[in-house]
Amino acid sequence: MTSATHSPSFPAVADSADAVLLGLDPEQREVATTLRGPVCVLAGAGTGKTRAITHRIAYGVRSGQLMPASVLAVTFTNRAAGEMRGRLRGLGAGGVQARTFHSAALRQLQYFWPRAVGGDVPRLLERKVQFVAEAGARCRVRLDRNELRDVTGEIEWAKVTQTVPADYPAAALKAGRETPRDPAEIAQVYGMYEQLKRDRGMIDFEDVLLLTVGILQDRHDIAEQIRTQYQHFVVDEYQDVSPLQQRLLDLWLGERDSLCVVGDASQTIYSFTGATPDHLLNFRTRYPRATVVKLVRDYRSTPQVVHLANGLLNQAGGRVAEHRLELVSQREAGPEPVYAEYPDEPAEAEGVARRIRDLVAAGVPAGEIAVLYRINAQSEVYEQALADAGVPYQLRGAERFFERNEVQKAILALRGAARSGGNDPLLDDVVELGSQVRAVLSSTGWAAQPPAGSGAVRDQWESVAALVRLAEDFARARPGATLADLTVELDERKAAQHAPTVQGVTLASLHAAKGLEWDAVFLVGLTDGMMPITYAKTDEQVEEERRLLYVGVTRARLHLNLSWALSRAPGGRPSRRPSRFLSGLRPGSAARGAGKGPAAEGGARKRGRRGPVLCRVCGRTLTEAGELKLMRCEDCPSDMDEGLYERLREWRAAQSQDQGVPAYCVFTDKTLMAIAEAAPGEPGELSMISGVGGRKLDRYGVDVLAICAGQEPGSQDADDA
């Protein structure tokens, strides 16, 4: 079947309603033809959800069951809304409204304001930062540029969760938010910000939703007019709705239930903005008679990529994990994911750059390759490595490292100190270059310890900290180097990274990569402390980090590379550990279960394997994924029990047929060979075999151990085993 996600092209106009259904798989077809009542589409990554819902709307229009003007399709970005409108036009369903929540609400607010309130609609405030800065000044709360961004984010969160200024401190504490300033100060600034807007007759984007909600609640005649206009609703990315957006949707619907929602709780990665998957997870409770369709056929990624993605979620905990979807790849087999461990960060970046250069040389377009990291501050070393390797790149969702405001400010301070030479009092009694740099940058507000929490302040610190590390590495490589030498080096690095990047490798944070896909994806910096990030303290926060990695994995169509460095700088102490999320998934590692917090992780570390994995026959270091699974070289003699292997294959075939999934979704051939060679006698031995995670152990362990013991597998269904 044609990929449901890779190519969005469709016939110019389908010639009939039935033609709209051509090319849909059975589950997508069920979505498209179920036009009445509440419908909940649980759609995994790469399963063609946009295809399913656009064809649903188009089929309803072309079959005469839906009037185009009566349908409102809502999504979260202008890009997604534009894509949806384009697809609908191509399917002969022009005239359907496809908008973001904000644009739909703004359109209604502008139309009904004169009637509901009177006078002109307040002017829309495009950027809050200037008003927040003025509010802070009036409250005598000094906010630097990055604190302004973070406090603005807190105000946005408060408004989408319908929290008034007086209630903000208690709400932030209850939500476990890492606030950039004292919550009482933020509440004070928030209140003044609201007052400034009122005084000047302005509203912000959150006000658009709040005011529309207020009008629809107070004016039943207006609410009924909207409900007469729009009778059928489709909401994409439903796991990302905020409480305020859900309230608006409820008012649009009234007492009706002609609603189709589409989402995947396992891709909830924006909770810090107020998004919550609760509405998706509670949909069937609210609408007991809802039709629920699961899309699990993955058209984007190879079986190898999908297997890893499923494995990540199989180790998850919490309510969201209970609703995870087991994806089934529809693509031909591809290469196994590549795991790479490096001694330090520069070596990791250089290794990634070499692999990318090889892929480009092999015919993979640079624009179909991405390097994804947890925070934007990680980009600099990859920018440099790719530039050194002659590979073009482009940054998504962030400025170039040397164009970031905090980096420019820091370099300016270093250049000034270099010109002052011995006349700068900051450098009195400071001789070593690294110490000089730290002294100079401390005067600009940088501190040796990172700030608490996440957001712009943390990103700013990480960027300047990267400069400090660069200076330390420069001093180590060139003993006796001066500040003037360092500024020359920085200028040369900046100049070298301004190559054309139109078709370059994408460098992006994992958050910025949501909704995108590439032929080859490199997930880098996968160490505990970065993935999950250090400030993810609670079980819920750690589970969101796991989902963030899952989103990263599912961006890859064919090639997937995962890497980490044992130390920061060359020669550093190798104290880092690979991300706990990869335990039991990467070759040579043992599963650590679903422990989320630091305490759980501490106990699990003792069970993790370290060092090279050696062939159990000849002792050679193993590197290939298939060899690592077997724990021996491919050409070393096997001691596999052939009869046991055949019995396992027969059992797997039966399981595959009963469950309606490909055989490799039960166990791959390599895993069956490893089981037949090890002939485990108890669950602990079986769990140590690569490819047998905790969930598969629970599901198939009893049968497999019985077969290994020469017995018939139990008669229970696999789901009950």
TrEMBL record:
Span of domain UvrD-like helicase ATP-binding: 22-302
EC number(s) from the headed UniProt entry: 5.6.2.4
SUPFAM superfamilies found in the cross-reference section: HRDC-like, P-loop containing nucleoside triphosphate hydrolases
GO BP terms: recombinational repair
CDD domains per the UniProt record, alphabetical: DEXQc_UvrD, SF1_C_UvrD
Molecular function (Gene Ontology), one example: ATP binding
Binding site for ATP: 43-50
Location of the UvrD-like helicase C-terminal domain: 303-558
Biased composition (Low complexity): 580-602
Record-given protein name: ATP-dependent DNA helicase UvrD2
